[in-house]
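Data card: per-record layout.
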Amino acid sequence: MMTITSLSNPKVKELSILRKASVRRERGLFLIDGAREIVLAQKAGVGIVELYYCPDLINKWPKDQSFGLNSKKMIEVSEKVFQKVCYKEKPDGFLALAKTKQLELKDIKLTRQPLIIILEGVEKPGNLGAILRTSYAAQVDVIIINDYQTDIYNPNVIRASEGCLFFNQVVLASVEQTIQWLKDKKIKSLATTTSGAESYTKADFKKANAIILGSEAQGLSQKWLKEADDLIKIPMKKGLDSLNVSVSAAVILFEALRQKGSV
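The structure for this 263-residue chain is written out next.
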């Protein structure tokens, strides 16, 4: 088993540059910070390339101390090295280098009456992570991201999703590709906007539906507002423009679950 104590070690430099989304996309690699998140990733079938651990930071080992990995994949590091490459303010001493998984629209598996979330231009990692977590809880079939502003493997997305990112089907696609895919699958599109004609509670979520949400700052593009089958809104007190996008997603998704008889 290798031990790293120097900040100038090539592996440390490689881990450090994975903070950049462009590098993560180019290399197809990302970091998972924390034993709980690593275990969840493994359960979801994420490929672990290497595991870095710092004995000085570990208070409690997981039940399987090797995470089921070959010892050649486990690398011990000093505390200063771990603090250099980890993301959490209070790390638990475990960090995994893992392979990204890129799904395409053709790869999506759907239930008989699917429920889909489409996000356009959502910027904040915390919001994206929260929506992924809520989508998993609400049994959403797939999350399609248009005009992505935040890499789904951003560590803050992983943290906010509580590891649910690993269990969701997440696809990056253009608006045009998504519109055509919905038409091919005969899935009704419901765009959320403050100018929507009807309340979200009036929508029929028992059928196949895609709920489209935009960023808080910009809302949805004219393309979506024009191409969506229906425009819906969340009624609210006058003077308030909109809710946090993750809150809006939760409100609508659990209404959909109620209608489906799942809650």
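Known properties of this structure: The mean pLDDT is 93. The longest helix spans residues 245-260.

See the next section for split statistics.
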